[in-house]
Each structure stands twice: as C-alpha cells, then as structure tokens.
Design a protein that fits this description.
Chain lengths: ~190, ~190, ~190, ~190
DNA sequence: CATGAATGAGAATTCATTCAT
DNA sequence: GATGAATGAATTCTCATTCAT
C-alpha cells in the first residue's frame, strides 16, 4: 500500500466514524501516521481527499453490487436472512454513502461521481442479463435492476437509520417479489 | 410563530442547504433575523438546536407517513406516478433526514429520537390497521409496514442520490407488490 | 479612536517595522491588544487591512505634500537643511511607501489607489498655483510639480536607501533649481 | 552558467514577479529546474539567496550607472526622452531595488551591501571626473553625482509608482539643471 | 428581553529546511 | 553530487460561546 492509499485508508477510517466535515486533516495525519504536510503532497486539499474517497468507495460498491445482483438472480429464492440480500460489506459502507449523498446535494463533482457510478452499474447489469437471457429487452431488465436496488437501498437505510430488526414475516413477501422480478429463477 | 420556532425554522432552512455542521450559529441568527445572543437564550448550544430540529422534522415526517400509509392502503392500486407513492413533502425533507441519519451514527441522542419515532409510527399503523381489519395479527401488519416503507425509502433515496427517473415499467411491479401487501385493497 | 482605527494603527506600526507580508495578523492583534477574531470583524482579511492602510497612508501623504509644495513655493529659497525640503513626517512614512510601491507592482487595487492619489495631488497643486498666478498655464505648473516631486522622491529614497548624508554643496544647486522652477519666488 | 548562477537567475526571475518573501524555495527550485536539496547545497538558506541576489543586482546596477553618468556627462544636453536619462536596464531592476530597500530597513547585512555599493559608485565617479577635470575638487564632484542621482532616482520612482508620463515641458528644465551640474558639457 | 462586540481554540494550508537514498 | 519525500511550526481564517450593556 503506497502513501496515497495509506492516507486514503486513514481518511476513510476517520470519516466513517466522524463524517467528512467533522474529520480534520490533523485527524487523518494522525491515523495515517504521517505529517500533515505530506497529505498535501498527495492531495491538493481536503476536498480532493473527499473526492478520492468517494470515487474509491463508490467503485468498491459497484463491484460488490455487480456480484450481488448476479448472486440474487441465481440463488434459491427462499432466503432466510436479510443479510443474504445485502451483504455486510455493502452495509458497512452505507454510513459513508449517506455522507456522500448529503455531500452530493451541495457538491456538483460528488453528484457527478454518483451519477456515473449508477450508470455504470446499470450498464453492467443489463449486459450481464442479456447474455443470460437474450430474449429480454433492456427496458425490462432495467426495471428489474430498479426494483432490486430499491429494495436493497430500503433495507440498508432501514437497518442503519432505525436499527430495527427485519420483520420475520418479511421473507415470504420478498421471495414473492423476487419471483415477480426474476420469474425465471428456480422456485 | 414564537421566537423559538422562528429560530428553529431558520436553522432548518440553513441546514437543508448546508448541512448541520456547515451551518454556523451566525448563519442561523442572520436567517432568523435575531441576535446571536438570543439564540443562546432559547437553546443551550448548537447541539440543542440540532436535536430540536431533528425531533421537529421527524415528528412532521411521522404525521405525513401516517397519512400516507393510510392513503396507499385505500387508494386504487393502479398508480401512474412515483409522486403518488412518495409525497413531495416527504421527499423535500429527505436531505435533512440523510443528515440526521449520518448524525445518528455518531450521536446517541439523535439515534434514540429516530428509534422512538419509528416505534411510534409502527404502533400507529398497527392500531389503525387492526381497527380496519380486526382479523389480522400484528405481525402481518408489521410486515406490510416494513415492506411499504422499504419501497418508499428506496424510491426516495434513489431519486435523491442518483436523480434517476423511475423506470416506466416499474409501476406494474409496484402495483403487484402492493396487491400482495394489501390484498384487500380495491383492484 | 475606534476599534477599526485602533487595529489600523497597530497594523501600521507593525508593518513599518516588518513589512506587509512579514507582519502576521497575530502580530497586529497583539499590538492592538485585541483578539484575532475581532480583527476579522472589522476587516474581511489581511488583504483588506493592507488596502485600508495604503489608502490611509497615501491620504496623509497627500495632505502633507499639499502643504509642502505650498511652503516650498513661498519660502525663502536659501535653504540650509534637507529637512527643510522634505518634512520628517513625510519621510517617516517612506518605508511604508516603498512597501506600497512593491505591492503595487503585483496588486491592481493598490496600484489604482496610488494612481488616484497622484492625480488628486496634481489637481490640487494646479488649482492652488493657478489661484496664485493666474497667468500661468496648467502645463507649466504640472512641470513644476513634476520637477519638485522628482527631487523630493530622490531625496527621500537617497536618505532611506543609502542613509548617506546630503552633500554640503548640494544646497546651492537646489536653490538654483527651485529658482528655475519658481522664478517668481523671492530671492 | 553554473549551478549556482542558474539558481540565482531563477531566484531573480521569481522575486521580480512576487517579491522576496512571496517567493518560496520551491518556486525557485521549479524555475531553476533543480531539486530543492540542491539549492541548499549552494546556499545555506533562503536568506543567503536573497543576499547573493542583492549583491548581484547591486553590482550590475553600479556598472550600468557608472556608464550612465559618464554618458550623461558627455552627451549633448538636449535630450528628448526620459529614456535617454534612465536606461531601460536600470529601470527594469527597480522593482527588485524597491524590495531591496524595504528589506534594507530591517536587515543590517542588506543595508551594508547598499552602503558599500553607493560608496563604490561615488569613488568610481570621482576618480573618473578628476581624471577628466583635474582642476575640480572631490566635494564639487560629489555634489554633482548627488544631484544627478537624485533626479534619476526620482524619475525611476515616478515612473514605477505612478506610471505617470513625464511632463513634456520637463526636458528644458532638466537640460538647464544638467548644465548647472556639468557646466563644461558641450552645449 | 435583546444585542452584538469580543474571545480564542481549532481548522486548513503553506513552506523553509532536513535527510535517507 | 543530486533528489524529493517528509516534517511540523507558523499562518490565515472561522465559529461556538460568553457577557457587558
């Protein structure tokens, strides 16, 4: 792990705990065990650190979700745990993603990163699905992606915000929904 | 509107735009057109303003969502617009709610406010539903609430974060889902 | 003397000794015996302090030089001391004026302040002279002002830079020159 | 041009534009296209660079002014352009010289460099003049040098600070003055 | 009640200087 | 000789909070 990554990792750790604007460059330097000055060798300013972090987190998210959609599409529909739907790695980044989303409402560049990421995710998903099921049109696939990601977002937010347990009766509904969305999945 | 409310309204306006920690007490004083000193007469510190604001926003949210669930439960299932599902008033507060959620991960008191609110919302909903359909058990109702709020959260987040339009094919799926969740709703 | 003037006076004192950019806001605060924060209540930033100081010094300079030209024009031409030509008050500001001039080469706003001041000085002088000697044209007066100010600038710079004493034989030359420039002055 | 000169040339270029204290060692390294470390091989610290630069500039100035006084002393007194009096090379260094002068008020070593230079200039001039006109005494020559340099300084400062054009009627006065100072010059 | 001047700790950022390679 | 990564003190500026009027 080079210096730049070391600093970014420290920034992520701090910002997960305290948020973007509650984290000082001092904090990051301490966490990364480098001097403040060095941070400015690698990143023009704090803004640039946040941008790099957002890009990084979002890319990891895309990779995870790509794998995730595929997994859901092919797994047995009878889930038993919400954790089956939203993997822990995704969820552990969600706090950062909420920060990112808040930030995106005020910061054009962050907003663009998010839009691009979603576009990429969508394209990947459609390509994959069309390879698997050449008979479907892009629109129908897009809708599936949309529904799935709605649910996933919802679960994530729910868990984070209210830390409520998932209703035990939820799974049958979810299974039915997935069945609607992926009628081809094995019963 | 008394002084205290006037200050809180100013705080909300500022914090919607800039976030909790990017908003200074000076900003709020200017927006509320009162002196800084007066703000400290009504609120112990900035933390107290944020807490009051969170409580306030969350309460308004509960009121809206209470009305909303009832509306969804009884309206014709054939929606045509995502706006039918998530009212604009709810959405306009979502940015604040994301801030709140971020804050909640670091601030025990905020977290408690959120938990209490969700509990209240759930209880209200279950009570209402049981009055309408005495034959259902609380668990099943709870599940319905959960699924609906998942979807709603998902739609909100989606709109805010990625500003993606809702897929045109989404509505049939949504209608089917609502039908599963509210099998008694008029077709 | 109000707060704003108190800060400006402290800034002047510091900047005379250390120059614009070697003077920290901390220094000014200490000298003025106020907190750093208060300085920023009265001046947007350090740049604004410098601008205010320049304007202030230049205005005092104009007042002095206005009086000075008039004095030279009417005094007996047989001077004995360079101090007769350039009053001490003017000279004591010259270090600041050198700073100002350096600054002016990089800072458009400072440059404009200097230009405006010289224009004002010139206009004042021409008006005065024309009242005293209505037969003269503005051009000739302008030339006199120019020659006088050249000499004055030269003396000032000389004294500051090299701290050389004035040549004892200089005065007869100077007298002759003034006589050329002001042929009407009493011999 | 060796390394040391290359660095000094880069320092001069930067400091003409930004001033001594607004120029960073990093700036100089970049301009000179050498590493920061190398600069500290040739110069103990930034102070030493400034001193070397001042010495260098002042020496070039002396050479120019030596030539200049001689030129003025022997040229036809009927000048037409201020540029004839103060050569462009001199003027282009004036911004640096103002910096130097400001610096000299705070820095003993710089002040000494300036004094020594002026002494050298004076001695050279007197030696030259006495060779040309053995009948004159040193005092009278000194006075001439003084008057000439006053005027020259004045013109320079005037042009830099106020960027005022020279009054068109100035030249006859200047010619008359030079005639006073150098009565032996060809008419 | 109401004001806003005043404070000073803390944040972001820069830069002269060192030193291991 | 030559490099440039690394340091951290110093600088500018902000902002929550207090308090005399």
């Amino acid at each position: 792990m080079n210096r730049s990554e070391q600093i970014l990792a420290a920034a992520e750790q701090c910002m997960r705990l305290k948020g973007f604007h509650q984290t000082s460059v001092q904090n990051i330097a301490q966490q990364a065990d480098v001097s403040i000055g060095l941070i400015y060798k690698y990143y023009k300013n704090k803004e640039a650190i946040i941008e790099a972090l957002v890009t990084n987190v979002v890319q990891r998210m895309i990779t995870l979700l790509n794998a995730d959609f595929e997994r859901i599409a092919h797994m047995d529909v009878h889930y038993h745990q919400a954790e089956d739907i939203v993997p822990v790695e995704v969820e552990s980044s969600i706090i950062l993603l909420m920060e990112v989303s808040s930030e995106a409402t005020r910061n054009q560049r962050i907003q663009q990163i998010m839009k691009d990421a979603w576009q990429e995710l969508k394209n990947n998903f459609i390509t994959q699905e069309q390879q698997r099921h050449p008979e479907q049109d892009a629109n129908a696939i897009h809708t599936r992606l949309y529904v799935m990601s709605l649910i996933i977002d919802g679960i994530i937010i729910r868990r984070c915000m209210k830390q409520a347990d998932i209703s035990p009766d939820f799974m049958p509904f979810f299974n039915a929904m997935v069945n609607d969305v992926y009628p081809h999945a094995p019963a």
